[in-house]
Amino acid sequence: MESTEESLRSALQEENRRFSDLHPTLKTHGLIVEKIIGRGAYSWVMKAIDKNRKKYVAVKMISKRTANENLIVKFIPRELDVIRELRHPHIIRFYDYIETTLWFYTVMQYAEEGTLLQLIKKQKKLSECQTLIYFSQLADALEYVHKRGIAHRDIKCENIVLDASDTLKLIDFGFACRVRSTGNKSGDKVPSPYFSTTFCGSLAYASPELLSLTPYEPQPCDVWATGVVLYVMLFGRPPFSNSKNVTVLLEFISKGLCIPEGNKVSADVEQLMRQIFVPVGKRLNAAQLRRCSWMQRATRKTRSTENMKNGVACNGITDRKRVKLDDANKT
């Protein structure tokens, strides 16, 4: 009798063949689909060989038949507008965009090592040294995006990937928006400060102002979400709660940051988190993240994965006894 694992593998292989056969458009653009590497509510992400570029690429495909009108009319055009201009070592590289009567295809850089979430699940949690390097790279990307008048609005461990050299890349700008005018050709002006009323992202990464369903500034919400990524890297769990209930989440947030018992981190990184998980008016911005004392340990010279492995980038990090975690925060 066929095992569950074998059944799943067989089903996946069949689905890979089906996608390859159903997308001849990709072949005409020199793209040979190999397998599915991710999926969402309306999209699939495929690993493909790009014959023209002579390397592997990732192809995100969105079906026009299943995607809702808001996604097609609002979010896809907005994502393309943003990703076409972004060029940064810690942001996934955009290559091409293809549209047919039935599908949207976005061709981008392929990240061989998978998502940050997959790495955390494998290791349970990351060392502070490893976290410092990845967070430095994420902060670099965030500052670059924010300086260009853009907010990501869906930062989470699933939307951060690692390439073959173990370098971090921020992906998925599907909810991104401009928060100020950039002098685009259409002449449209975006007011500054820009307030959004659209709930974007995942509950566990949402700031209190976003959870409160009031008009919010998107960029400070990005900083909060980046802080959640930092906490998850260090401790392997969200900082407040996994609850899907907004009221419960807000209650946990109101109690303040707690460090899990038995975990040792430096005073500097704890101070950084306490400057992120605060009301929006007191929260650090992306540029201030880069200037904090903990981040100064990872100078531009040492901000690399290779130096992470040999410890150069982590000079000065010391451990100390952590505070006890409130039993209520163990849910």
UniProtKB/TrEMBL annotation:
<dbReference type="GO" id="GO:0035556">
    <property type="term" value="P:intracellular signal transduction"/>
</dbReference>
<feature type="domain" description="Protein kinase">
    <location>
        <begin position="31"/>
        <end position="295"/>
    </location>
</feature>
<dbReference type="InterPro" id="IPR008271">
    <property type="entry name" value="Ser/Thr_kinase_AS"/>
</dbReference>
<dbReference type="InterPro" id="IPR011009">
    <property type="entry name" value="Kinase-like_dom_sf"/>
</dbReference>
<dbReference type="Pfam" id="PF00069">
    <property type="entry name" value="Pkinase"/>
</dbReference>
<dbReference type="GO" id="GO:0005737">
    <property type="term" value="C:cytoplasm"/>
</dbReference>
<keyword id="KW-0067">ATP-binding</keyword>
<keyword id="KW-0418">Kinase</keyword>
<keyword id="KW-0547">Nucleotide-binding</keyword>
<dbReference type="GO" id="GO:0004674">
    <property type="term" value="F:protein serine/threonine kinase activity"/>
</dbReference>
<dbReference type="InterPro" id="IPR000719">
    <property type="entry name" value="Prot_kinase_dom"/>
</dbReference>
<comment type="subunit">
    <text>Homodimer.</text>
</comment>
<keyword id="KW-0723">Serine/threonine-protein kinase</keyword>
<protein>
    <recommendedName>
        <fullName>Protein kinase domain-containing protein</fullName>
    </recommendedName>
</protein>
<keyword id="KW-0808">Transferase</keyword>
<dbReference type="GO" id="GO:0005524">
    <property type="term" value="F:ATP binding"/>
</dbReference>
